[in-house]
UniProtKB/TrEMBL annotation:
Protein's cellular compartments: Cell membrane
Pfam families in the record: MFS_1
Name of this chain's protein: MDR family MFS transporter
CDD domains (UniProt xref): MFS_LmrB_MDR_like
Annotated ranges, domain Major facilitator superfamily (MFS) profile: 15-464
InterPro entries reported in the protein's UniProt record: EmrB-like, MFS, MFS_dom, MFS_trans_sf
PROSITE patterns the UniProt entry points to: MFS
Topological category with respect to the lipid bilayer: Multi-pass membrane protein
Keyword line: Cell membrane, Membrane, Transmembrane, Transmembrane helix, Transport
Major location category of this protein: membrane
Domain of life: Bacteria
Length: 470
């Protein structure tokens, strides 16, 4: 089927709408239970360590499934995969709403994450397939809107709901939207991706799961257990060894499950690394700021989530606009300005105290999210534009995997710095000690932003044009 005939068989706007709705509720679930954890812990009689698994397991399952998504996208039609992903996610949501105990609730989160782990790279691959190269920036801007806005409103939404209703309402609210999207996808979704002859190497799946799962679990646990704890060290060891053998195996296979040769492109490599930095800064900040507002300033969970909302809205509004700007000027200038904004908005957070005005925090955070919108999806698009078409599914899978790893590493590093600095603070007041720890974490965040700012100067000026001319 030639591209023109293929184009005539589907309505691009319908496909975009279906995928954005599905991906939005899938990613929203990543942070939806954060504010509700105390209520769930009390209701199901579990401690913090167990409760945290409801978020960690979601992220781990995502990290394990995303690498497999490149194979799935080449093996199965896009229509089949979207229906399957939404079907799995909807099933997990039903199990979560009815879960009588913690093990079943945890199982529900893993089922939800399995659907979400397929949905995200699939959406990116479909968008990059149905949009011409000169419009991919705008398309990926819409993806950026979902990635930024959905997890940011999760804590606010759950804070409001659990203050008024039971935590099960979080699943009941998502369920009808998931069912509607599943029905619409079944009726309206068309096949748009090209299938290739490929087979799944089960040894690669095992190595990938142990590799990415081990590293993600290690980084997720480091913030609470400490970097030198047995759990973390064993996780890192298993993850690193498995990942080494996974990469070696992929390089030797004729049809690898995940194509590491995408890193032969300098543009893809540097944009992916910068994307990891910006995602680490975004997730790390979204984790640490509520600790300051709730534990130091005694702000309620709902109001703490509400403080992050203007930033999410700003990023949601800016992402499509930034996408159109990217189509015209490329990613280099946007990345330089974006990292400069991140750097200058991190510095005030490194000097938080007991009297820092809360509106000032909201304003700085909102400006910071605008800077994030100038980096995240433009760089993803620039990197994937540098790849030939047959590597796009592998590029999107790799990019999503690295972003998950970046978010885990960033959160773990910042939480670890915060905890150790708070313990070693020269004060007997626990609130002052925690504030000192938070300030120390943001100093590390500022250093990361500076690294990103310096590296952004190494980007090429409009990689998508070079790709067109190649």
């Amino acid at each position: 089927m030639n591209p023109q005939t293929e184009q005539d068989t589907y309505n691009r706007k319908i496909i975009v709408g279906l995928l954005i709705l599905g991906a939005f509720i899938a990613i929203l679930n990543q942070t939806l239970l954060v504010t509700a954890l105390p209520h769930i812990m009390a209701d199901l009689n579990i401690d913090e360590t167990k409760g945290q698994w409801l978020t960690t397991a979601f992220m781990l399952t995502n990290g394990i499934l995303i690498p497999i998504s490149a194979f799935l996208i080449e093996k199965f039609s896009s229509r089949t995969l979207v229906i399957t992903a939404m079907g799995i996610f909807t099933a997990g949501t039903i199990v979560g709403a009815l879960a009588p105990n913690f093990p079943i609730l945890l199982t529900a989160r893993i089922i939800q994450a399995a659907g979400a782990g397929i949905m995200m790279p699939l959406m990116q691959t479909i968008f990059l397939t149905i949009f011409p190269i000169e419009k991919r920036g705008s398309a990926m801007g819409m993806v950026g809107l979902v990635i930024a806005f959905a997890p940011a409103i999760g804590p606010t939404l759950s804070g409001w709901i659990v203050d008024s209703y039971t935590w099960r309402s979080l699943f009941y609210i998502i369920l009808p939207i998931a069912i509607i999207d599943l029905l619409l996808v079944t009726i309206l979704m068309k096949n748009v991706t090209k299938l290739r002859e490929t087979s799944l190497d089960m040894f690669s799946v095992i190595l990938s799961s142990l590799g990415f799962g081990g590293l993600l679990y290690g980084f997720s646990s480091a913030g609470s257990d400490g970097w030198l704890s047995n759990t973390v060290m064993i996780s890192f060891l298993v993850g690193a060894i498995s990942l080494f053998f996974f990469i070696m195996r992929q390089m030797s296979l004729k049809r690898p499950m995940l194509e590491f040769r995408v890193f032969q492109s300098w543009t893809f490599s540097i944009t992916t690394f910068l994307g990891m930095i910006v995602f680490a800064l975004m997730i790390g900040t979204e984790t640490i700021l509520p600790l300051y507002t709730q534990n130091v300033r005694d702000v309620t969970a709902f109001d703490s989530g509400l403080m992050l909302l203007p930033g999410a809205v700003a990023m949601g509004i800016m992402s499509p606009i930034i996408g159109r700007v990217f189509d015209k000027i490329g990613g280099k200038g946007l990345a330089i300005i974006g990292f400069a904004i991140l750097l200058f908005t991190t510095i005030p957070f490194a000097d938080l105290n007991m009297d820092t005005p809360l509106p000032f925090i909201v304003v700085i955070y909102t400006v910071r999210m605008i800077g994030t919108s100038m980096i995240m999806m433009p760089l993803t698009t620039a990197g994937i534009n540098a790849l030939p078409p047959h590597l796009i599914p592998h590029g999107t899978a790799m990019n999503n995997t690295m972003r998950q790893v970046g978010g885990s590493i960033g959160t773990a590093v910042l939480i670890s710095v915060m905890s150790s600095s708070a313990k070693n603070a020269s004060t007997t007041n626990p609130l002052n000690a925690l504030t000192h720890g938070i300030d120390s974490a943001f100093i590390v965040a500022a250093i990361l932003a500076l690294v990103g700012f310096i590296l952004s100067f190494t980007l090429k000026k409009k990689p998508q044009k070079q790709k067109q001319l190649a």
